[in-house]
């Protein structure tokens, strides 16, 4: 196998940040490669993964807290209010309600 870019070489390029649901790669366009010894090579080509598929693996922030944080907080508040109302118990015999403040 032939090593095109060694560890420490510098690749210059751009990436497309429009990522759809379920995608884990971004499209990259590499413009130039500069080796540690200062040799520059013009690439002007698309990036590809280890198996040759277009795109480069990337960590993508899905913003789950921004998407679901409000619903989780609302659910928590509803559960807290339900727990508070469960401390109010119907007393046996008198037909009234008692509040347990402990």
UniProtKB/TrEMBL annotation:
Its record classes its membrane topology as:
Single-pass membrane protein
Q: Which Gene3D superfamilies does the entry mention?
A: Type IV secretion system, VirB10/TraB/TrbI
Q: Which InterPro entries match?
A: T4SS_VirB10/TraB/TrbI, T4SS_VirB10/TrbI
Question: Which positions are tagged coiled coil?
Answer: none
The identity of this protein, by name, is VirB10
Primary location recorded for the protein, binned into one broad class: membrane
Kindly list the places in or outside the cell where this protein is found, as annotated in its UniProt entry: Membrane
What's in the keyword line of the UniProt record?
A: Membrane, Transmembrane, Transmembrane helix
Q: Carries keyword Membrane?
A: yes
A Gene Ontology cellular component where this protein is annotated is: membrane
Family, according to the entry, reads as follows: Belongs to the TrbI/VirB10 family.
Keyword Transmembrane among UniProt keywords: yes
């Amino acid at each position: 196998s032939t090593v095109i870019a060694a560890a420490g070489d510098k690749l210059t390029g751009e990436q497309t940040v429009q990522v759809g649901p379920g995608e884990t790669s971004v499209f990259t366009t590499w413009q130039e490669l500069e080796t540690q010894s200062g040799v520059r090579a013009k690439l002007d080509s698309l990036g590809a993964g280890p198996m040759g598929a277009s795109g480069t693996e990337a960590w993508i922030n899905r913003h789950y807290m921004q998407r679901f944080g409000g619903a989780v907080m609302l659910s928590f508040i509803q559960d807290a209010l339900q727990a508070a109302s469960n401390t109010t118990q119907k007393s046996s015999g008198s037909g009234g309600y008692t509040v347990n403040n402990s």
